[in-house]
Amino acid sequence: MPDRPAAPDLTPLARALRTLDLLWERPGAGAGELAGRLGVSERAVRRYVGMLREAGVPVESVPGPGGGYRLGRGARLAPVRFTQEEALGLVMAVLGGRPELVATALGKVVRALPPEVGRQAALLGAHAAAAPDPYVTRPDPVLTAELAAAVAARHRVRLGYREDEESEIDPWALVVRHGRWYLLAHSHRAAAVRTYRVDRVRTVRGTGRRFTPPPGLDPVTALEEHLGHGWEFATRVVFDAPLAEVAPWLRPHMGTLEALGETSCVLVGSTRNPGMYAREWLARVPFGFRVEGGAELRAEIAALAARFAHATEAMPGETVADGGVAVPDAGRSR
Fold first, then answer.
1. DSSP secondary-structure letter at 79?
2. CA 297 to chain centre
3. Can you say how many angstroms the Cα of residue 83 is from the centroid of all Cα atoms in its chain?
């Protein structure tokens, strides 16, 4: 049976290497399957297998109906060696960012790639740029890995946080939120749930004791809900709309939303940044509301309202129409 027409962009060597990739992915694949994946005849597949064997790759024949091929003992891809921080940095870069570690690790990956692919990857790395995210943090990769190991093994640890004394915690989960790494945990000192910024962790030491996390724990939801309470400035906001309409505009970290009746609801929570709470969270909600609790939040809302009112003040030659919007004077010459 003659070979199928060869694709012009693949040489026999390239197809032999592709055959090797397929055998890594599909051990025991038959000649027919390999032929279909490569777009060639089964005779061509046997030729590529022969090329691999001549190059010292241990390709074994699989007995049975139809036969097949698999890689034998000793078949290994060329190793790419990373330091511990580089390997952890690659994982963290996908979720949060550690560019100074990724740069050296990525260089090793690029050098291990086939020349053409490596050239494209190098060009992309050299000529693409990312705008820095001001909210991204840079946790220590080794400490982060130690916390991840404690979470996985359910081991209680002593945590050194900021300048505080070490405290015993049960580390429940690591959560990446808006570029920041958080540890959701139970603090034995506070006898309560606590969240810790991982970039502020100084030390992690094992205690030799185990713990059992809460059943059915949803780390992301639990973190969001916890971030809405326990901060310095209390908040209480009443919305002039039903809970079902307001809820989609709020995030769990803003507090707890409860119905006051069929036509209104109340948001009770706390914040460490009343200005952000007012400008970035409340200002986007398209319903009327009243701030009934939190002097600091009320002050921020008043300041924001004054700024907006000033922005719509009439200029010379303008009048203020109904609704407080400045419009050109009809008698003004153009």
1. P
2. 30
3. 23
